[in-house]
Amino acid sequence: MAMARAKHGLFLLLHSRRFFSLDYPLCRSPNTLSPSYLTAAARGFCSDGISDLRDRILRLSENPASVSTASADKEAVRSAVSALADELLALPDGQDPAVSLGSGSFDALLRLPPAGFASVELLSRLKSRPLLALQVFNWRKRQADAEIPMLPEEYYKAITLASRTKNVDLAAELFSQAIADGIREVCLYNALMSTYMNNGLTKKAIWVFEVLKQDAECKPTIVSYNILLSVFGRSMLVEHIETTLQAINDSELSYTITTYNTAIAAYLTAWMWDKMEGMYQSMLEGPVKPDAGTLLLMLRGYAYSNNLEKMEKTYDQVKETVNNRQWPLIYAMICAYTKSSHPDRVKRVEALMKLIPDDDYKPWVTVLLIKMYAQESMIEAMEGLISKAFQRHIIVTTAGIMRSIISNYFRNNAVDRLAGFIRQAEYAGWRLFRSLYHCKMVMYGQQNRLEEMLGVLDEMENFRFSRTRKTFLIMYKAYYNTGRRPEAATVIGMMWKHGYGNDEDAFVL
After folding, report:
1. How would you class 201 by CB atoms within 10 Å of its CB: exposed for 0-12, middle for 13-18, buried for 19 or more?
2. Per-residue pLDDT tens for 432-473?
3. 470: Cα separation from own chain's centroid
4. What is the pTM (predicted TM-score) of this model?
5. I need a surface site. Which of 21, 125, 230, 264 has the fewest CB within 10 A?
6. Is 368 exposed, middle or buried (0-12, 13-18, 19+ CB in 10 A)?
7. 35: preceding bond cis by omega (within 30 degrees)
8. Alpha-carbon distance 220 to 275, whole Å?
């Protein structure tokens, strides 16, 4: 059925008067085509930057009827290619697509104007299955001839497809084949640079850029510099970022939105907030204005730098986008609020938490919320999250978090709750330290529960926490404040016995 639709589309194209329009010299005999025309036609596919877009707009204004006709024919080709793509995508993994491609329809599609466009379109439609798309590219390369030469865009897409399969060697081989075929386009350099960058091969990506600079037939475009900026940004090579930006300034190239966003992302990664802000301000003052991507980057930067005022203003501008499944940014804002002293931080955090689905559980977020609720003396909310952490086998090892928890219990005079928490923490493997038990002893002493206070000493011994001077002073104060002076004097004697006594203790006796 799919091939029937493709053949029907071809039939309509071949019988359309537009197909024989003089606007398409490629429809003439191949003997009448000049090499310069073929080269120009090939280069037209290798879109690479603002200059290319400007050229297209100029062509549209000079000859709108021709462009309109070309667009209509391209749409018809796309329709026929779509049917063929559906048939190929239905093939099982590993099956050779040569049978479908060799039926004759694809060869006819390749000859429709502009020549080779069908191959570019087909590779685009097969990008969800890069291995299959590469098989199609290989078949197409074997069929290439003087009438329908390989286009730069085909090699560009093939290199990109190889990158998606993590086959860096294949990407480099395809680049070399393009050069051997006489195709030297900057977009191919850019594709190979991106491949190395995306696979963590920073040095090779930089090497490709240096080779491009030395190529007499090509020169770096703003896209090339943008990729280089991204390479340096991922590696946090800030000095090289500055050098690259200066190189762009010294050239005839202009910053694009990608240039700004890449630089902002690099400064954000390096936590260089002033540089990040400076680049953003230059956008506001220049011809290239921030887009949604810029605002999302700035939102992340403001969250990481705890600049809540600017974070909230930026969030108001992109709230709809952020709330629509931008979980990392939501988490970044939650983290910023939990670390701040914002008077409404609990309310803001809880509103943001409602945007997160229940199945997207982050242990570190739970720990931050435990600390926030502890600092706000919200004992029920804190214990609810602690219980969830125990259920999910989260282990807390940070002393600051533990101290916030026991401080909350102490402020609420909830010694029994503290005792229950300590038992669970002991069992769950959370970090234990002497202050946990000292706090419990103090609270038992304040409530005149002296026997339970003494029982804490056994608990300390079970976890090998020796008695310190502070331990004895807590006991002394508990006995002294309840009027049990003999026991208090005994504690002072024990302090001397363990080497913790001093002249002030002797004076108390």
Report:
1. middle
2. 989 999 999 999 999 999 999 999 999 999 998 999 999 999
3. 49
4. 0.75
5. 21
6. buried
7. no
8. 25
